[in-house]
Amino acid sequence: MSGVPYLKALAAGLLVGALYATMRVRSPAPPPVALFGLLGMLLGQALLAAL
């Protein structure tokens, strides 16, 4: 079960990549989009830790 956090991280990365593709955000993302993504990662990490 030690690989579960890595699988969660991979799934989150794939989800964000799909969202970027859907929103047609160029890569690298503009600073506001990147900061919003970082905030989402922090909130997601806190949510997973609370479960």
How many helices? Answer: 2
Q: Radius of gyration from the CA trace?
A: 12 Å
Distance between the termini: 16 Å
Helical content (DSSP H or I, runs of 4+)? over 70%
Give the total of beta strands.
Answer: 0
Strand percent estimate: under 5%
Main sheet summary: none
The average pLDDT score comes to 79
Low-pLDDT runs of 5+ residues are none
Q: Which shape, going by the Cα principal axes?
A: globular
Structural class: mainly alpha
SSE ordering: HH
What does this structure look like?
- The chain has helices spanning 4-23, 31-50.
- It starts with a helix and ends with a helix.
- The longest helix has 20 residues, at 4-23.
- Helices cover 78% and strands 0% of the residues.
